[in-house]
Amino acid sequence: VQVVESGGGLVQPGGSLRLSCAASGFTFSNFGMSWVRQAAGKRLECVADIRGNAAKTYYTDSVKGRFTISRDNAKNTGYLQMNNLNTEDTAVYYCVTRQGKYWGQGTQVTVSS
User: Fold this and answer.
1) Can you name the residues that pair with 23 across neighbouring β-strands?
2) Longest C-alpha distance within the chain, in Å?
3) Model confidence over 32-48: pLDDT tens digits?
4) Where would a tag sit more exposed on the chain, N or C end, judged by fewer CB atoms within 10 A?
5) Could you give the 3-state DSSP secondary structure of residue 73?
6) What is the dihedral sign for C-alpha 79, 61, 90, 84?
């Protein structure tokens, strides 16, 4: 089983990034997927999640209207499109699936001028 995030980096406030989550070794479409972030010194926070069939999504209030979660089950890949980023979005972002059993290694997102 592998869950691998990519797409993080350094971006200026107001910029955009698209995170990807490549899953393998299990039936990705059978499970919901979440993006969870952790800023330095803070608790884990689920910012978005999506059902296995993409029928329903959830966003935490601070990212509503700016972030979009999606998935392509044919490619076993999930995404997090992040727009209008601000410094409060700086964190390590993890892709989590199979009801919290599988986590990726995380990808750093830094929003700074």
Assistant:
1) 3
2) 40
3) 999 999 999 999 999 99
4) C
5) helix
6) positive
